Structure formats: C-alpha cells, structure tokens
Amino acid sequence: MAGIASIEVPRSGGRAENEMRPVKLTRGVMKNALGSCLAEFGDTCVLCAATIEDGVPGWRKASRQGWVTAEYAMLPASTNRRTKRETGQRKGRSQEIERLIGRSLRTVVNMRALGEVTVTVDCDVIQADGGTRTASVTGAWVALHDALWTWVEAGRIPRMPLTGQVAAVSMGMVDGRLLLDLDYREDSRAEVDMNLVGTESGEFIEVQGTGERTPFSRERLSGLLDLGEKGIAELIALQNEVTGFRS
C-alpha cells in the first residue's frame, strides 16, 4: 500500500513556525485624535485612535471612576471582496471583537486615577490578512497610552493612570504544525485557531481557542500557549520601544 505524501507549505516571508510577521507600530498618525497608532502585522493594517470625553455611562455616574471602551470595524475595501459598512445592524463578530479590545485595555487602567471620563479607542481595519483582533488590541494600547499621556500633560489628571501593558497574538495548528501569528492563508485552513491576550508580566487576560477541524490535546494547548507567550513578549518590547513606557 502506497504511503501518503504531504507537502509542507512555506510560510509568508519564509518565516519559522515560531516567528512573527514583520510588526510595525506607528504613533501619531491622526491629527485630531489624542492618541493614535497604525498597527501593521504583515499585510494586516489597523488604524487605532483614542479620544477622551468628559462623563461616563449612566450606570457609572457618581462612581468617581472612568471608563474605557472600544469600537471595531472593517473598512469596505479591507478584504478582496467589498465589506458592507455596518451602518444599521452591527455584526456579531464586530461586537465580540470590540468587547475583547475594551476588556483588554480596562485591565491595565486605574479607573479611579482616570476620573469620570470615557476613553474610546476606535479600531478600523484598513487591510485584513489575518489577526485583525490581535493587531487591534496591540495598537489600541499604544493609542490609549498616548491619549492618557496627553491628558496628563494638559493637567486634566495628575498622574498616568496606566498600570501596565497589554498585547495580543494569534496561534494555530496548520497541517499538524504549531504556528505563531497566522496570516489569512494559514488561518483559513487551520485545524486549531487560538488568540491570546497578555500583559508585560506574562499573565493572561484572555485565551480564545477552537478546534476548527479537529480536537486538540493538552500537550498541543501548552505548545500553542508557549508560542503565544513568545509573541506577546516581542510585542510588549516593541510597545516599549515606541512609547518609552515602563510600568
């Protein structure tokens, strides 16, 4: 009986299984935002912009605490087929991602030090090639950092309310191989798809993992988390490099 041959498809850019795509975080790309960042993970580009407004949601009034939230959308030409604008009913995927971004950012903000203001970080996907949510979280932190620092310099708050950093990365199993930072080609055929959100101290904020085509073992899970930890450490270092932040 003849054996079954398999072909190992090379990764984009010829990168190794545990290697990120080229990542670039460009600050100050929008004139009117208090903080902004263009996050590029390979061919995925997300524009993140942070604004601060006086007041908080009704349920949080008189709490003497602020609020941090996010909005996420994919621009019409961000994929190879036009994506309709979400002018009416929001897509469930977009709502789920923006909640993820908001939750992630809130874990590293001292809400009492922020005061009764609302910070909104808008994440708009300009170009999508896999990992839009992870690029959004990573870039959103940079935009948030710069907006809060602007608020401090303006004398609106006495000290920086950021308590740490947060970044996110994708991992997955493709053709039996564990890969870090999947592009669309890899993500679309992954047997296991995962996203990890973590802090500069190595702690996890959120782990999202799904067996898309097959269940996975505890050993595989550990291997994927190891990859994710490596990726987040690299992203945290890049955030430090561009902002000079130290918690």
Report on this structure.
- By secondary structure, the chain is an alpha+beta fold.
- Helix content is 29%, strand content 29%.
- The protein is built from five helices and nine strands.
- It has helices spanning 92-106, 111-114, 132-153, 184-187, 218-243; strands spanning 23-27, 35-41, 44-54, 67-74, 117-127, 166-174, 177-180, 192-199, 204-211.
- The chain has a five-stranded mixed β-sheet. A four-stranded antiparallel β-sheet has the order 7-6-8-9, with helices on both faces.
- β2 (35-41) and β3 form a beta hairpin.
- It is globular.
- The relative contact order is 0.17.
- Residues 1-6 have low confidence and may be disordered.
